[in-house]
Amino acid sequence: MEKKITKAKVKPLKRELKRLRQELVAAGAGAPGARAASVSPLAPAGGFPVLPVIAGAEFAAAEAGVRYKGRLDVMLARLAPGTTVAGVFTRSATRSAPVLDCEAKIGATPGPRQGAAILVNSGNSNAFTGARGVEAVQAIAAGVAQAAGVPEGRVFTSSTGVIGEPLPHERITAVLEDLAARLSPEGLGQAARAIMTTDTFPKGAIATVEIDGQEVRIAGIAKGSGMIAPDMATMLVYIFTDAKIAQAPLQRMLARLTDETFNCITVDGDTSTSDTLLLAATGKSRAPEITDLRSAPARAFQEALRGVMLDLAQQVVRDGEGATKFVEITVTGAANTADARKVAMAIANSPLVKTAIAGEDPNWGRIVMAVGKSGAKADRDLLAIRFGDILVAEKGLVAEGYAEEAGAAYMRHAELAIGVDLGLGSGAATVWTCDLTHRYIDINADYRS
């Protein structure tokens, strides 16, 4: 006997299918428009962390169909009155309309009753879209202001995805009322999934620090996989804390820590038009206000914040498009810090170095090449190169006792450390990168298909 399926039974099934589809999107598999077939082999072993509630911050995510149907692609964050917001942005000469709008708004002093909001969409970067791009930002900001009950001047928007196509902002404004109605302190995890493009896993990091016996919480999310060579910040990153701190010191702290974290990673040497890093401090912790950046509480908070930022930055590298190797490059003995950074980035961005790593080829000659082209002061006969603890070359020659077999065995590791000592001074720098595989070509050759 054939059984009838009633509407009452169909609705729960549809909800379950939707939930499963969202989980597949979060994992980067099976989603319409998803470019990654599986989660990166370098993804953190523990998976996505359990994010703590940040008092004064609420989040929601929705499917707006900005570019693809059936995937989370818009997230909204609403922040309590008195929240301070700091930010750093791409210095690209072709930066997007949302970036320009955020730059104009950052630093404005909020009134005591003014909240703030952050709206992010994936699928379309709203970059190189002329006056239409500006109009889209204005329409979204006005819609968010009305739906979330915050001033339009305190709405920060970000967009990520394809460049040069008009943003269908009406699809976003159509879901704003629904987003505002579903705002929840527990919604940050869904927000992390909504901002993904070619990412194969959502990225999150957390930290807590005690100040005068009171807990301060920090939680951050990020997206990024390709077009990664930060020139101020990186990709899209949003960090929230309940710390109490004014905008000016928060901005100084963020700028300094960005140079130590996000500005020390690279995937492919390309800087995005949309790079945005926003840090919001709601001030809802019971801990006293951080006023003196030289104080012990400020240093403790800064170290915890640095840990979150570095964790997120390294997760971006681990999710580099097509990556199979996570690589730390440390340069010491440079004439100065700037030279050390030049050399480290020259090695990290070299296609020849990166493809050798992908092929597990201990071709240290390519590292010599990268040092030489960097523009930093270098002396062939003082240079030393190491793969992990293995001394490969020194004093202008292959190191005595070095065996190619040992280098080849080391290169088979998933996580690698390359050390270069220039023998000239005390300058040092560390950067993080990944290998360059054919999968990177596959992803980017049909990115707009």
How do you describe this structure in short?
By secondary structure, the protein is α+β, with helices and mostly antiparallel strands. It has helices spanning 7-27, 97-105, 130-148, 169-173, 176-181, 188-194, 247-260, 296-318, 337-349, 351-358, 365-373, 404-411, 438-445; strands at residues 57-62, 74-79, 84-89, 116-124, 155-162, 203-211, 214-223, 236-241, 276-281, 326-334, 384-387, 390-394, 397-398, 415-421, 427-434. Helix 3 (130-148) links the parallel strand 4 (116-124) and strand 5.
Overall mean pLDDT: 90
| Largest sheet features | 6 strands, mixed
Query: How many E-type strands?
Result: 15
Radius of gyration from the alpha-carbon trace, in angstroms: 23 Å
Distance between the termini: 47 Å
Uncertain ranges: 1-5, 17-36
- How many H/I helices? 13
Task: Give the fraction of residues assigned to helices.
Answer: 25-40%
Q: Record the strand order, biggest sheet.
A: 13-12-11-14-10-15
Strand-pairing-aware structural class: alpha+beta
Query: What are the secondary-structure elements, in order, as H or E?
Result: HEEEHEHEHHHEEEHEHEHHHEEEHEEH
Beta strand %: 15-25%
Q: Which term fits the overall shape?
A: globular
